[in-house]
UniProtKB/TrEMBL annotation:
This is Alanine racemase. Residues 240-371 form the Alanine racemase C-terminal domain. Coiled coil: none annotated. The lineage of its organism: Bacteria, Pseudomonadati, Pseudomonadota, Alphaproteobacteria, Hyphomicrobiales. Transmembrane segments: none annotated. Pathway: Amino-acid biosynthesis; D-alanine biosynthesis; D-alanine from L-alanine: step 1/1. Pfam families: Ala_racemase_C (PF00842), Ala_racemase_N (PF01168). One of its GO terms (cellular component) is cytosol. NCBIfam families: alr. The active site is at K43, Y261. Catalyzes the interconversion of L-alanine and D-alanine. May also act on other amino acids. GO terms for molecular function: alanine racemase activity; pyridoxal phosphate binding. It catalyses: L-alanine = D-alanine. SMART domains: Ala_racemase_C.
């Protein structure tokens, strides 16, 4: 167990990251993916929990292939894991080729221009460096068109470098009945058949917990490893993140008074309110707040669920603790925002967002500890 530089006594919140849950989630996904291999996605600072801790834990749990979004993330990861296979999803930016060679990183090439640049670089360097090829099957973000992929397959002999992986990305796999899933699967299958000697990869977390037809040779789960919900109808695996916020102040509010900016919450009875020392600067979405017109998220105080009230400020938020015994809670205590039955998914829904955004926004002002 190690602690972040902010001492607990000074921090507005405590973030506990359960690395044994992370390892177990990875191993569970590995079992579901078998016989396909299971990679891990570490972009966004390991989905907000910290790249170093996530990388070391997942390597120990058996992961050997990793995906990040950017070269800067890949460099940090290479320093942590000298032997790992590391793919950079966002493509080959101009003038970065040498950095890939130097650290033995794999770009995920997603356009004819990127492929041409990689080929030219390999020829200049006199080294056939493997790269992945991304084919778009319906996301319309990165990747070759299927027609471009066909011409790459036809020109394999002159490609000038080995294809380490052929991949595509599912747009709607969290909704199992979405018709795009079957279309993407069919299109990817047809393209993968043109590269019979190359490992193929299509599935994110949602694809990994779906039918094995989606698994191909390598699955690439991210969110499910970190305890997020992989699919609307599939429960999350073990929670990895627990977030507790310090109670800075407890105050009495008279009936008819308002709490916070904009007077958005009006007390309809004499109330006791706990002011917690964290806000949107710590990554708690403003939309998790409440008003007289709409409820917000909840926090657990002294073992009981209490509603957030009023707007979330930059550094503070308010919780109605009228139902809690006066001596059960005092300033300096912690209230739970994630954990004690409050899931990531639950906070995300109340905030009109997704688990991914909650995790990758987790603030830098918390005392962090890794279990
Ligand atoms: C982020 C990402 C993943 C992981 O997705 P999850 O939904 O978090 O499992 C897999 N593949 C690609 C291309 C990604 O960008």
């Amino acid at each position: 167990m190690s602690a972040h530089d902010i001492p607990l006594a000074e921090a507005g919140g405590r973030l506990t990251i359960d690395l044994s849950a992370l390892a177990e989630n990875y191993q569970e996904l590995t079992r579901r993916a078998a016989p396909a291999a299971c990679a891990a996605v570490l972009k966004g600072d390991g989905y907000g929990i910290g790249l170093a801790a996530a990388a070391r834990t997942l390597w120990q749990a058996g992961a050997r292939s990793f995906f990040v979004a950017l070269l800067s993330e890949a460099r940090d990861l290479r320093d942590l894991l000298p032997e790992a296979e590391i793919f950079v999803l966002n493509g080959l930016f101009p003038d970065t080729e040498a950095a890939y060679l130097e650290r033995n990183l794999r770009p995920v090439l997603g356009s004819p221009a990127e492929i041409a640049r990689w080929r030219a670089f390999c020829a200049r360097a006199g080294e056939e460096m493997p790269a992945a090829i991304h084919v778009d099957t319906g996301m319309n973000r990165l990747g070759l068109t299927p027609a471009e992929a066909v011409s790459v397959a036809e020109g394999r002999a002159e490609l000038g470098f080995p294809v380490a992986l052929l991949m595509s990305h599912l747009a709607c796999a969290d909704e199992p009945d979405h018709p795009l899933n079957a279309r993407q699967l069919e299109d990817f299958r047809a393209i993968a058949a043109l590269f019979p000697d190359v490992r193929a990869s299509l599935a994110n977390s949602a694809g990994t917990v779906s039918d094995s037809a989606y698994h191909f040779d390598l699955v690439r789960p991210g969110i499910a490893v970190y305890g997020g919900r992989p699919r609307v109808d599939v429960a999350p695996l073990r929670p990895v993140v627990r977030l507790e916020l310090r109670i800075a102040r407890i105050r009495h509010v008279h009936e008819g008074e308002t709490v916070g900016y904009g007077g958005a919450h009006t007390a309809i009875r004499p109330s006791r309110v706990a002011i917690l020392s964290a806000g949107y600067a710590d990554g708690i979405p403003r939309l998790a707040g409440a008003s007289d017109l709409r409820p917000g998220a909840e926090a657990v105080v002294a073992g009981r669920r209490c509603p957030l009230i009023g707007r979330i400020s930059m550094d503070l938020l308010a919780v109605d603790i009228t139902e809690i015994d006066e001596d059960a809670v005092q300033p300096g205590d912690f209230a739970t925002l994630l954990g004690d039955g409050l899931t990531l998914d639950n906070l995300a829904r109340h905030s009109h967002t997704i688990d991914y955004e909650i995790l990758t926004s987790l603030g830098r002002r918390y005392h962090r500890r890794w279990l």
